[in-house]
Write a structure and sequence with these properties.
The complex is a heterodimer. By secondary structure, chain A is an all-alpha fold. In chain A, 58% of the residues lie in helices and 3% in strands. Chain A has three domains: 114 residues, no CATH class; 119 residues, no CATH class; 116 residues, no CATH class. Chain B has one domain: Alkaline Phosphatase, subunit A. Chain B is globular and about 50 Å long. The chains are: A mainly alpha, B alpha/beta.
Chain lengths: 476, 375
Amino acid sequence: MAIQYLAANRFGLGRRWDDPAIDDPKAWLMRQLAEFDPAPAAIAALEGRAAIAGAYIDYREDRQAMRREAAEPAMSEEEKGMDPELRRLSRSAIRRHYVDGAAARLTTAVASPTPFAERLTHFWANHFAVSADKLPVIGFTGNYEFEAIRPNIMGTFADLLIAAVRHPAMLLYLDQAQSFGPDSPVAARVRRRQNRPGPGLNENLAREILELHTLGVRTGYTQADVTAFAKALTGLTVAGLGRGAGQRLMPAGAAPGETVFIAQLHQPGEQVILGKRYADTGAKQSEAVLRDLAVHPATAKHVATKLARHFTADDPPPALVERLSADFLKTGGDLPSLYRTLVASTEPWQAGPAMFKSPWDWTVSLMRGLRLPALGERQNIPALFTQLGQPVWRPGSPAGYDDKVATWAGSAALMQRVELASRIAGRIGDRTDARRLAPLLLADALDPGTSEAIARADSPGQGLAMLFASPAFLRR
Amino acid sequence: MILTRRTALAAGLGTLAAGALPHLAYAAAPTNRRLLFVIQRGAADGLAIAVPIGDPAFAAARRALADEAATGAKLDAMFTLHPALEGAAGLFAAREAHVAHAVATAYRDRSHFDGQNMLEGGGTRPYGRDDGWLNRLLTLLPASERDALAIAPAVPLALRGTLPVGTYAPSRLPQADADLIARLSSLYAKDELLHPLWDSAIKTQELAGDIGGNNGRNGAELGALAASLMAPADGARVMMVETGGWDTHSGQRGRLAAQLRGLDQLVGAVKAGLGAEWASTLVIVATEFGRTVAVNGTGGTDHGTGSAALLFGGALAAGGTVSADWPGLGSGALLDGRDLKPTRSLEAVIADAVAHHYGLDPARAKKALYPEVLA
């Protein structure tokens, strides 16, 4: 049993070149749960929600100005020439928040002394996925992981769920910021005064919470549950970023980019969800629903299955799923208890079948293994992961990236890894001895075939590329 | 510069220097003519390149893809060119382009690798020959006209044979080197997951040439490179470039448009780069087989049979025309109920074009290029 290798790779992000040997793997993993730093320097240095919202508002205003000016042919040629530049700058301000966030995520993961906790952060960020496909969401993706997910992974599932659902990135991504109670005071006023149908309900967030974040698909909830839950969620929106009636009702002190609850947008009345009545308590109504969903047996099963799969194989052992699910129900969704049960179980410590590292995990483990910087100073981090097939915070769907061997083990993807390994080896291969690095990084999983192949390489660089492309290094 | 970076690779009898071979008795007189063969690896959809919008069954068969050609250049009463082929439309109008439609090699199955092997080898069965029709053509040309080159990491089968041929691979492409690839093949040999993935990765990489990328500019770069290697007085006279990315099983509309923009710019860059020499240049564009007449469930088309070949150049026999013995697209007219039925041999189209270009006796050219297929 390759226990050293499994501790570092199945549970972690690969051994760092300067890590001491792991004496007691299970104790090492357990210790990380207490030592995890939710806001290390690279993340603490990032700008907050107000700056991110500001970048988007600037962009939107520039765009509106461009439209207005396009309608006025009197504008000079010189003025016309300036517009695209303005627009480009504003866009790049949005993009800068995304790029800086991705770089901070990578720096943190590579340097982390608690890689198991980093893996859990990445796991939950993917479970509660937002995707940088919508313009208002792009700038917030990093802030979402760093402020909604990361500080809550050592608490209860309910707190993590509520933090994720209430973050502006999620409210914008799943259209909650544009959802209005059909009988809310605002909608009623629009109908009355303007004699047209008022703004209405958007069920997107409610449906995805039930289907993806909590109970799981086809677990017995009905369309009526979705609609009622969507109504309970109304009133929750983002200051400064939405459009129309809601924006005029923002509380005076609300800074752009802050999550706010606006009572005039909220659907009045009781809601019945999964057979339970929820009195209209304003913002507390949806929170009460979320707290019940968070400890539902279907949620326990759903979360246990995903967590077990992430740390074992495509088809997780039923006994492990059952054990995690029982633990979740017993503790009311206490996450550290769930992690401890996972580590203490025998199933994740079996050598096979193994999972295939995602491009993210593979690149991070490669960088952790090297004393010298693997990438150039000016490497565009998002572009690198897009090329490897896993754009950072852009899975393209609220379901996140699929978590199966076949998701990442593709032929073109494999060639791209080999090409990147080859490029990195070309940069630093002559100053790194793969023969000495291999026993460190692959530990008790270094097989004679890989060892020999590295030793027989025709150059130190080729040996290093072969180490990173070796079957054990590609897996976890 | 060009010549110093070339590697003359010899195969078979080609280990003898070209000059040491006796001139063949039937060799043609020396000329300044140039020939470029552009292979489309992956089965390019001829029905989307030169679109038979005049066929009454076309719109129903192509459904969602049928309106694609609406803004393309009209070639004749039957055919319209894909709108991405803007430059080619100009060449067609100037009688410098020709389309041969409903053509296919002797191959009748639907494997890319077998089909490409037959297109390049020019035999009657896959892997039946280890030399290619372009190399056999070289034997018909005077020694001064045999300078042949492929833009590829290794000599493609079409150019392999008794006469030596060079290869040129642009070094800016950051590809893993062949030795590392070979070593990883043995490292993965016993790995049930990695072994088949790696095999497939290598094959895909061999299908070089992403001409569709970068809004067609990759195609323009490849064309400019080919022209720069052919234009000098001592440059290559016979050349082959490889293009991949034609296997449009899904999302064909956007992908094929990008591919064709790349191809269009490739041909445009060859003409621009050759200048006055374009008048004595022939470009042949061909693929291993065509694609299904019907659109599949993912907005693409699957492996078929009949396709279209394109000829470009300043001295074509029938520039500005489409040649086709059109079989029709009605359900009864299709091969195996699914494919455009080939009514003409692609080998004959190539042999006739080459014979006209070099002033060779067509029967002799056919016999030399395709001794089994056309003899």
